[in-house]
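Exam revision sheet. Question 4 asks you to relate a sequence to its structure. Input first:
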Amino acid sequence: MLAALVAVVVGGSAVAVRQLDDSEVLIRERCSATVGADTFELTPEQAGNAALIAGVAVSRGLPARAASIAIATAIQESRLENIDYGDTAGPDSRGLFQQRPSQGWGTEEQIMTPLYAAGAFYDALVKIPGYETLPITEAAQTVQRSAYPTAYADHEPEGRAFASALTGQSPAALDCTLRAPSAAGAPLAVSTAAEEVFGPLGGTVDGTRLTLDAAETRGWAVAQWAVANASALQITSVAFSGLEWGRADGGWSSATTETGTVTITVAGVTP
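Answer key, structure tokens:
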């Protein structure tokens, strides 16, 4: 457990000392994807958006390459943040991909909905012949028609790393370092959020524990989606395929798990 001592200073003298628990110690929250020898970091907010983008690709049966292109594009366009102002594409650009209502991408409200924005990006991407074998910058530029057509290439390595983890191609490749939960979690809210991205999963709730039905690669996509969203959804642990991620210590370790299920535990009480 992390701990720190804080001294209250009055008139140049320390008059009281209090020990802070792990929820009060300053932690730089971050999520990392490690594939091979390379590790890349995002904030929890960015990681949650990357997980949504990858999850939509999984739900549509698209290859991991599609998610790599989409994540690299969103890093360049919005830093993987759902911004409500124009950044690089134009003054009316909005959302994760800086899509423009004036260019037929949808209404501003639709574009500011990440699930819609990701779907709209993939709708355009799959119309490109042979997009799976194109360089990321070429595929992304064909969709986006950016004023900076070569910029997408700068984000290919991290796009590939997070896509590989979040589509389930690289098991246990995503880790998040987080502070203690700030509130009680809600298993049904986690289930609803997961099914909005992946479609029906099925499963059960037992107290603070949610069990979702998912096997093989899809199971790892769901499990690492849950890790990426652990900060927002007050998740404390995620277990799948003999491994478990724990919020308190971070990282994946061996665990006894049920075959074909992702087990997600949320904080039970407000700290």
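Marking note for examiners. Residues 1-18 have pLDDT under 50 and may be disordered.
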